[in-house]
Amino acid sequence: MLSKVENEIVTRVGPETPMGNMLRRYWMPALLASEIPGPDCAPARVRLLGEDLVAFRDSQGRIGLLDELCPHRLASLYFGRNEECGLRCVYHGWKFDVEGACVDMMNEPEEHDFKHKIHIKTYPTIELGGLIWTYMGPPEKMPPAPKFAWTQVPESRRHVTKVIQESNWLQGLEGGLDTSHAPIMHRAITENTTRGGFKPSNPFVAGKAPNLVVDLTDYGYQYAGVRALGESEMHIRAYHFILPFHQIRPSKSETGAALDAGHIWVPMDDHNTMVFNWIFLKDGGALTEEDRLERSLGNGPLHVDQTTFRSYANKSNNYLIDRDVQRNETFTGIEGINAQDRAIQESMGPIVDRSREHLGPADKAIIQCRKKLRDAVRAVEAGGTPEGLGTTYYHLRAGEGVLPRDADWRQELTPTMRPEQILQTV
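Predicted structure:
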């Protein structure tokens, strides 16, 4: 468990908070690229680390991420006109380019021109993997671009979605890093159901409770659940945690093709999180339209409003839980694996009180995540560099399989993890 003071440190993300300062040292997804699809399109609101921003593409396709409020009279630029390489406030016509410079003032006579003195707060952006990323930290400390393996493949092999979770970001991250809950909460209790979930015959479910192995690295850690199967085999499911809020996990497409998949839990503020969900085909080919519906996860257009990015199954309707389904088909009775995650994580409250927890060996990955985050906060406070700002995560893949008990599962399933990257195994 954490003390109440420690819990405050790891959960509060606003400007000038210890965690907020640390998170600002990393590139963060701000929105889907499809939210600002083309030059001079409508701007999009972005709430990130307690700040209200607005994103737009100018006439040349360049991306601006600005303070939402016009510095003249503090009207929202979300209602602005995106025209001729700038976003113009509709209140008095002040116009700003993607660099934040004021380039026109419609309400001021030419002899009073002082636009060169006005600059709105703006953050640098890059477009990678179907996302618009931003860096909100000190310019001189900007890290390399976040070139995860999934951002470097063609769009035909990649799919990214977004959903808003109404809880603190760390509840989402810790849920994603908790491999021991997955074959329990996400299981189907019958082989015959057409609903998503791990069937009883799946070795992920059929195996015993896992022993967790955590390999600490300079980017975060690799972690695996090792489950005994019968007398001579074991099931391994190996993931990666990349600071500060990325997960890579193994998965399969609707046709059974091998995928890497994952989530990014980006704090909007202390009580709300943007969860970006991605998949990509490891070995070429193309994703199907069925893959892009994300039926089994509950993240696609059938489950999430594509304007508000709010789930149709939510707290107000008890996540559409079906007690008959819970009794006869799935462990929770809630449709969609990630919808189940959101239901349980939101049920903890806006910010869970970790001083009341009782953790065990199955929580090893969560314990190490908290330690990594607190170490990163302390590094920034001391004027140093937190882990995970290099490029050693660029090549990472996840892995899953059934192997003989004496097999080297790291070599077999996660060969992209080089032995020299492992700093310590716990």
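Summary: The chain has two domains: 27-141, 149-425.
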